[in-house]
Amino acid sequence: MSHTPMHQERRKEDRRCDGGGPRSCPLLGEAELEALAERAADKAIVKMTALVYQEVGKSVLSKLAYVVGILVISLYAWAHAKGYIKW
User: Fold this and answer.
1) Phi-psi map region of 83: left, alpha, beta (phi>0 left; psi -120 to 50 alpha)
2) Is 28 exposed, middle or buried (0-12, 13-18, 19+ CB in 10 A)?
3) Helix (H, G, I), strand (E, B) or coil at 16
4) CA distance 28 to 13
5) What local confidence, expressed as pLDDT, does residue 27 receive?
6) DSSP summary character for residue 1
7) What pLDDT score was predicted for residue 18?
8) What is the rounded distance in angstroms from the CA atom of residue 10 to the CA atom of residue 71?
């Protein structure tokens, strides 16, 4: 790979944001970084809330299915004991 002036310029550009922290990048100003961080935090909260609601919903449906199953078996046993169902 040759080191033409274009390549050297590109390497300089790549070093502008050297990963030294969020405040070391001159491409974004302080207000822009704050706005970006706020949007990222909002998205994270929305995702976490959705996951919590999803897990709660699964838990509620699982327990509801369990209760409905017990009720159906109990109703069958009661109907069989009363003679409504002969098996």
Assistant:
1) left
2) middle
3) coil
4) 14
5) 83
6) -
7) 55
8) 71
H or E element in which residue 62 lies: helix 30-82
Please give the residue that has the higher pLDDT: either 35 or 86. 35
pLDDT at 71: 98
Express each pLDDT in 28-80 by its tens digit: 888 999 999 999 999 999 999 999 999 999 999 999 999 999 999 999 999 99
Q: Which residues neighbour 1 within 8 Å (Cβ) at sequence distance 6 or greater?
A: 7
Q: Which two tokens stand for residue 32?
A: 């822009």
Alpha-carbon distance of 43 to 54, in angstroms, equals 16
24, 32 contact by CB (below 8 A): no
